[in-house]
Amino acid sequence: MNTKIGTAGNKGEKDRSDCYxxxxxxxxxxxxxxxxxxxxxxxxxxxxxxxxxxxxxxGIEHALLKVEDKGALPFVMAARLEAxxxxxxxxxxxxxxxxxxxNLYVTKKEKLRISRLFLPGNTPSLMINAGxxxxxxxxxxxxxxxxxxxxxEARFLVRNALRSLDFMGSERMVRINQGQMGLEDxxxxxxxxVNLIMLPKCEDATYIHRVNERIEAxxxxxxxxxxxxxxxxxxxxxxxxxxxxxxxxxxxxxAITIGLEDYTADIGAARTNEGLESFFARSQVLNxxxxxxxxxxxxVFSDVGDIEGLIENxxxxxxxxxxxxxxxxxxxxxxxxxHFAPNDTELEWAIKVVTxxxxxxxxxxxxxxxxxxxxxxxxxxxxxxxxxxxxxxxRLSPDWNSTQQ
Amino acid sequence: MKNDSRVKNxxxxxxxxxxxxxxxxxxxxxxxxxxxxxxxxxxxxxCIDFPEDGNxxxxxxxxxxxxxxxxxxxxxxxxxxFRNGDLMALQVFDIAAELxxxxxxxxxxxxxxxxxxxxxxxEDGTINRIEGSMNGAxxxxxxxxxxxxxxxxxxxxxxxxxxxxxxxxxxxxVIAAPTADFFGNANGVDGxxxxxxxxxALADSQYADKVIVVTDHLVPFPCVPWQIQGNYVDFVVxxxxxxxxxxxxxxxxxxxxxPDRLLLAEMTSNFCDHVGIVKDGFSFQAGxxxxxxxxxxxxxxxxxxxxxxxxxxxxxxxxxxxKMLNEGLVDYILDGQTFDLDGVASMRTNPNxxxxxxxxxxxxxxxxxxxxxVDVVILGATEVDVNFNANVVTHSDGVxxxxxxxxxxxxxxxxxxxxxxxxxxxxxxxxxxxxTICGPGELIDVIVTERGIAINPLRQDxxxxxxxxxxxIKTIEELKNEAEKICGIPSKQKFDKEIxxxxxxxxGTILDAVYKIASTT
Lengths: 405, 521
Fold this sequence. Notes:
Strand content of chain B: 15-25%
Helix content of chain A: 40-55%
Helix content of chain B: 10-25%
Number of helices of chain B: 14
Strand order of the largest sheet of chain A: 5-6-7-8-9-10-11-12
Oligomer: heterodimer
Number of strands of chain B: 30
Distance between the termini of chain B: 23 Å
Largest interface: A-B, 24 and 22 residues
Shape of chain B: globular
Strand order of the largest sheet of chain B: 5-14-13-10-6-7-8-9-29-30
Largest sheet of chain B: 10 strands, mixed
Shape of chain A: elongated
Largest sheet of chain A: 8 strands, parallel, barrel
């Protein structure tokens, strides 16, 4: 007799907005649900209804389901239950929660990617309000943030989050695992309008090609055609040396980022706030990106309590030419936005340069000066970039030029 | 059944007309109840009954309680300036139980988790009921129908009003004082257990039949400042430890670290800025609760940038408010209770950090109301309904968990803002109807959630000013629907018919009743 028990979810003291389930198949007696929930007074019927529909969907008629609920939202509970079900029966069916129409947007290749908030893929409480902090992108992590024995259940949660969690306009990203596991991760995210896939520990073009083949196959199967961008992460000496090959390996690569924790470990150096040990790697990756017309994104700053350190880091990163960086905590987002954006002096100068350039152009003059400074094309280009950035970040009105005059 | 006779009051709630054997007045509407008659007058004392040398020291608290005439059915009061570090209430009722005294009424200015052991005295009949607040374990016990009498929840101002108007007569007030002299003059700013001030014990000292000052820091006469005047005091007791000031700080008195809540605070301060509240000479109050308290940080940033300063801030003071005072961003702190030791130190040394009492700040039956002079107050709530009525005492599962504090009194500010998350875990905060009404919606102007800001339609002026602010202004129904879209539509809670506590409005009328939780399936 099959007495296999499927379990999924979290029930630690600090876990919130999550639940822990154990499911045991029975041969008779129907579905019995043993529920303890901190929201029972308001939702016990709704919880039982949901569990019954999931089990019915998978054709389970007799089972004992124990639910320890700490306020899990329906999409979370459905993911937990599906993960438990698939430990006790074999099925290709999926129980998909409603796809929010708010989540159906696509993103552009050149979209701003200054901030990218990391969310561990198996921690619902951190996901629920991520969008309100308005990062440029929200990236749900299936890789390093997930314990090995939780990898499978996290896939269901991430899939359901892509459908039911309002991303509030942030670019929808997922970081998959390495190798074969990463390719399988794609099955859980590609059909659900993910905008960008982040690929860990890239060292050559081969893996990127395999990822793209899989994406194409899944999209064909699921009738999807929205663009799926790639952002490889370079995290090793080999990756750094092959940055150019990686950057140019596929059309849908929009950015490359660098993972300095792994990189410094790989080269045998300690990671410092000054970052001298990674200067070469960052420059190499950055130049590969710029030469290939894609964005260069810096590593995360891991001490989330050290805002001053983060500011220094952002300034340094910006001065090297990076276009953005990852965030591990929502409170880093604003700091990163503020300090990546052109500061007042830069913006004032940029406005002056572009305005004078337009004036000179109108008069048919190629080269002109502001004060004693000769202004040529690259200076104008940089100024224009700062203006575009300021407009994109809402610091400057898109019609600044007309209000100027 | 207790509280048999019930009527529907002016806000549509069914409330009892008799509570604990006394006839009460159902809520009539904001500003509709006009009291008549005189204030309560305590018995006249004469100095000839007191020691000529002024020394009122008694050897122990037990002896003092016996001398004060501790007897069955007496009303005993304590204050909560030590918050979760109070040592007095438990000692008093240990003594009462030891003496076999029953049916006492505990009349604290607030209760905390540290008072959970009192449950055993509610169970064994030493305490009949609590009139004040029932937090945590005491609230749960009350909700389960365990308390013999009916609990009465009052605001800080309502507590002063009830004592002043004689709704409740305190038989014995036990006042824990960080510093005192033998005559009974006492204060909270000095001594090893300094807790800031003793304003919550003012009414008790003025109106109680017997007053016991308990201190662990006895100084030679005179003890100045005398926040409590010895002329009101019958007995003074010296103990080893009067309270644990380090436990004043709790989750509700600390700035939040939660990014979601900081965002709420930031949105709130931006709102205040856009509608023109933040200006030179304005005044504000932030209630307890991490989100509300964090507002001060953002106000400070704004004022500094604009080169402006606030005229006064109402405390609960904490280190951030003290910093504003020290940096000249606010002229005065008018402080009802200190939320941390920085607040205590500042009150001791800075004359512009003024201690206040519920009489000064909140008493509705006085010749004017300070609370109405405040430009903006930022408070929390457990629930808000689509009519802007709000709840602070029960949670959506119906369990009584918090007291009212100064919350009701603060609603009279020129602009009252509640900052709440749209939902907690899965529990929507914006509801069709709140479980318990603690504040009428007509006094609540703005609800700020992380997903949108709703302005009370009664405040067309604010609606107009917030237009084109770029802030996410929504209707309260939109917020409710958004919460329900995420969490699901909650089913109605089930309650027993029995009333376990009543919520008083600031004028002493009955605003709502708290019902016993139905036994769970």
